Amino acid sequence: MLTKRIIPCLDIKNGRTVKGVNFVDLRDAGDPVELAKIYSDEGADELVFLDISATEEQRKTLIDLVRKVASTINIPFTVGGGISSVEDVAILLQNGADKVSINSSAVKNPQLINDLAQKFGSQCVVVAIDAKQIAGEWVVHLVGGKVPTELNLFNWAVEVADRGAGEILFTSMDNDGTKNGFANEALAKLSTLVNIPIIASGGAGNIQHFVDSFAVGKADAALAASVFHFKEIEIKTLKQELKNNNIEVRL
Amino acid sequence: MDQEKTQSSSTPPSGAERLVIINYGAGNIQSIMFAIERLGFKAVLSNDPAEIKAADKVIFPGVGEASSAMEMLLESGLDTLIPTLKQPVLGICLGMQLMCNHTQEGDTKGLGIFDVDILKFSSKVKVPQMGWNNIYNLKSDLFKGVSENEYMYLVHSFYAPNCAESIATTNYEVEYASALQKDNFYGTQFHPEKSGDVGEKILGNFLKL
Known about the structure:
The complex is a heterodimer. In chain A, strands 1-3-4-5-6-9-10-11 form an 8-stranded parallel β-barrel, surrounded by 7 helices. Chain A is an alpha/beta fold. In chain A, strand 9, helix 7 (184-193) and strand 10 form a beta-alpha-beta unit. Chain A starts with a strand and ends in a 7-residue tail after the last helix. In chain A, 38% of the residues lie in helices and 24% in strands. The model of chain A has no long low-confidence stretch (mean pLDDT 92). Chain A has helices spanning 32-42, 56-72, 86-94, 104-108, 111-120, 153-162, 184-193, 207-215, 226-229, 235-244; strands spanning 5-13, 16-17, 47-51, 77-80, 99-102, 125-134, 137-142, 147-152, 167-172, 198-201, 221-224. By secondary structure, chain B is of the alpha/beta class. Chain B has a single domain (2-207), classed as Class I glutamine amidotransferase (GATase) domain (Rossmann fold). Chain B is built from 7 helices and 13 strands. In chain B, strands 1, 2, 3, 4, 5, 6, 7, 10, 11, 12 and 13 form an 11-stranded mixed beta sheet that branches. In chain B, strands 8-9 form a two-stranded antiparallel sheet. The radius of gyration of chain B is 16 Å and the shape is globular. Chains A and B meet through loops of A and helix 2, strand 8, strand 9 and helix 7 of B. Chain B: Pathway: Amino-acid biosynthesis; L-histidine biosynthesis; L-histidine from 5-phospho-alpha-D-ribose 1-diphosphate: step 5/9.
């Protein structure tokens, strides 16, 4: 049976992880390769690297990082952040990334989704959508949730699926950072509207939240950052608990 | 093994494995290259028929869309070469599907090595199937030392129905063949290079055939 996936997300700046990480057994808390290896060994099903480098110069170090990660770990990984063209994606894939995640560039230029799907196949095109509720409507936001667009979450999700996205990474800005659980109602609605996998993101605080994202939110995968980085939840324990709750996982 | 680790891939002295990955412009080949290196082997990328023919083992990768991948094979003449190869050949993902008779994707005629037609999953399930699923009914040296029901990483919208050449089965909407073998030809729907340590073991088994 196809299992539900657990995906740690690492924020990368200038080739290093940013935000805190709290692994006592790390030689270098900022080394994404070392962290990737630890997550992979603990049973992560995939990894996401989100590059938040500000300059072109810093971005070059991302390519080196992608190569190092790809040569070290033997599970799939996605790279997102700052991708706006077919060429950007070609370079990442040539260096060993398995998928790319696009967000603002897809909103600004939806044709990019079609172009990437056609050129590289839908399987490597993840469209990330950040949204929050405004007067009861889920509105797509850009720039980490700061800038609202005119797009409705559900309409946009249907459109990106039609254009050839292989997967949707939905982050609820209302839930992100709250540790109060995922936006399960919106997640479940997404799953009924589109027939591609949905990754839940934003709000993970405890193991029950992951259980709910799958059981209630019908998500295919759940992504989190800080609960893993700070070892509030260990991936092994999490997956065992999911199994105990009759959620199929790879142990 | 140790010899192979240190020898250059482009000019292998006698006794070393010559491992060729068919490079016809389809898919992410880098992750296969890295996995092979982790196993202590070296591979060359090539679309040169003479080099492919002379290889001890051949890997036939593929990610992307079937009809355009098949077109690239036709252009390079690899469509006639591949079915005549005598050494062990491993098709991965789309590579495996192209080794079959036909695929519904783009209504594409395949290489006809495996006697089965590739079908599309219905909309009763999410398509593509993406993630880790278990493999069972394992038959073949490819799975030496691999337990039943190990999880492999799969990403695909089309599948090979169970058939006489099936050497592994997976269930997604239907029970289907997640690996095939006929004589020296092997195919895996899953990505051994992305399926953790067990996937690496399967890739290693192929390299040691």
